[in-house]
Amino acid sequence: MAQQERVDWWAGAAAPQPRVVAPRRSVEAEPEPPEDRVGGAVYRSVQDSEAFQEIRRGYRAFVFPACAGFLAWYLLFVSAEAFMPDLLGRRIAGPLNVAWTLGLGQFASTFLLTWLYARNARTKRDRAALELRWDTQDQLR
User: Fold this and answer.
1) Strand residues in 62-102 grouped as ranges (E)
2) How far is Cα 127 from Cα 120, in angstroms, rounded to an integer?
3) Does 5 or 127 have the greater pLDDT score?
4) 99 near 81, Cβ under 8 Å?
5) Helix, strand or coil, per DSSP, at residue 1
6) 97 forms bridges with which residues in the sheet?
7) What's the pLDDT score for residue 41?
8) SS3 readout for 38-96
9) How many Cβ atoms from other residues are within 10 Å of residue 68's Cβ?
């Protein structure tokens, strides 16, 4: 059987161009400039500081319970929809039933949680984080 020539239909009628490969250069690890090492040490010291840990504790103290509560509220709503459709189908007023009320409550609780988070951050963490940021910038100068 004679060998057939392979035709690349996507290449067009132009002759194939030779492939040019750049010569490899040896890649050696360049030492870090001294200011980068100092900056890394400053940021590590800030991360280990009591002020930073206090900011993180305040963040976790709000976020973890809020997420757990909202997730439980959401799963309760979905579970009720799956396992108690008769209860959620009860009419409250006109076309409004229990399911619609709980669904709208999901939106309301989302906005409430967002507002509470912003207020918590503004009143308890933002000032401390800004002071820590300025202290860090002063150490880097």
Assistant:
1) 91-93, 96-97
2) 11
3) 127
4) yes
5) coil
6) 91
7) 78
8) HHHHHHHHHHHCHHHHHHHHHHHHHHHHHHHHHHHHHHHHHHHHHHCHHHHCCEEECCE
9) 10
Token digits of residue 94? 């006109």
Tokens of 103: 């669904």
Secondary structure letter of residue 97 according to DSSP: E
Give CA–CA dist 117/62, Å, rounded: 8
Burial pattern 27-46, b for ≥16 Cβ within 10 A else e, equals eeeeeeeeeeeeeeebeeee
The rounded distance, in Å, linking the Cα atoms of 45 and 134 is: 14
Mean pLDDT of the chain: 82
66: tokens are: 């809020």
pTM surpassing 0.70?
no
Task: Specify the higher pLDDT residue, 17 or 126.
Answer: 126
Which sign, positive or negative, has the C-alpha torsion 126, 128, 131, 137?
negative
Owner of token pair 């989302």: 110
Place of tokens 């040019």: 20
d(CA 121, CA 119) in angstroms, rounded, equals 5
